[in-house]
Each structure stands twice: as C-alpha cells, then as structure tokens.
Amino acid sequence: MDRPLVMRPRAAADLPALVDLVGEQQPQSRYPYRWPLPFPVEDFLVRPGEIETWVAEDDEGLLGHVSLTRADVDEHAAAWSQGTGRPAGELAVVSVLVVASRARRRGIGRALIGEAVARSRALDLQPVLDVVPVNDVALAMYRGLGWVELSRARASWQPDDAPDLVLMTLPG
Questions:
Q1: Sheet holding 91-99, edge to edge
Q2: For residue 107, which of 36, 65, 66, 97 sits 20 to 30 Å off, Cα-Cα?
Q3: For the chain, how big is the Rg over CA atoms in Å?
Q4: CB of 33 within 8 A of CB of 40?
Q5: How far apart are CA 139 and CA 73, in angstroms?
Q6: Residue 33 in contact with residue 134, Cβ under 8 Å?
Q7: CB 153 within 8 A of CB 165
Q8: Which helix (H) or strand (E) holds 126?
Q9: Straight-line distance from the first to the last Cα atom of the chain, in angstroms, rounded to the nearest whole number
Q10: Could you say which residues of the chain have pLDDT below 50?
Q11: What is the pLDDT of residue 172?
C-alpha cells in the first residue's frame, strides 16, 4: 500500500538524510554523473541562486528532492536564453532532482518537477534544465512531460569522456 506523500520546502535539517539519499540512488540513476563528487554532497544539494527547494517524504522518511534556481548564475545561461528567446533573468533552472531507489516508479520525480514548474510559472519564469543523457529514464520522463531539447553543451565539471549535456525547456 502506498504511503501518503508530503511535499514541503527543504529544511537545513534535511541535509544529512539528503546526502545519504544522493549516495544511495547514484549507482542506479548515475546522477550526479561525477561520483564521488570532488566536494561535499551538501554543496551539490544547496546551489547558488536558489529560488526554492522541495522534498518529498512519507512516514518512512525522505523520498526525493528538487531545486529551482536562477538561470542567470548558471554557466549555461546564454545557451538557454538563446534557445528560449528569453533573457536569462526570465528563466529558472529545475535542478538536483533525486528520488530514492525505494520510491522509483511511484510518480515522485514527476510530482517534484511539477512543484518546481508550478512555482516557476507563478513567478513568470520559463523553466529550463540540463540532463546528462546517460539516464534514459530521466530523459524519457522529461520528454513525456513536454520538455523539449534546445541544444547540447559541455559543463565545466564534466570529465572529457562524458557526453554533452542536453539543455531543455518546458514551453508554455
């Protein structure tokens, strides 16, 4: 039986459990792509330019996380701006979407993305994201939700053998 899902803003007290969640789900999702990270996982979770962040939980604990950040502080701001036709200040990045392995295939990722997109729209910001195309499940989910590819790009953190990132937006 599915336990009731609660969506709420991320709290500082959530970080230790989220650090564990990121590590637990990484072998299956391959996100973050670079693992182990060369910096604390807390710095991966807490991003510059955060607008809002959310966690999903049930009575057994945290199930997932997503952030909405300002695009104008991101290294791909110009590419997203060119692809959407909107200035970077009118874009918001949906990022750091992680879902616990025990919660996969329950709609948690979609629910978290929905929270971030709804907030982005309420702020009159166009949602954008990037994804490493090694995670077919994530790409299929984004495309199934209507996200479209704008371009491909390299990130400063990517190893030489990593595929280019897929830069996407959700029109509308």
A1: 6-9, 50-58, 61-70, 91-99, 126-131, 165-169, 148-153
A2: 36
A3: 15
A4: no
A5: 24
A6: yes
A7: yes
A8: strand 126-131
A9: 36
A10: 1
A11: 87
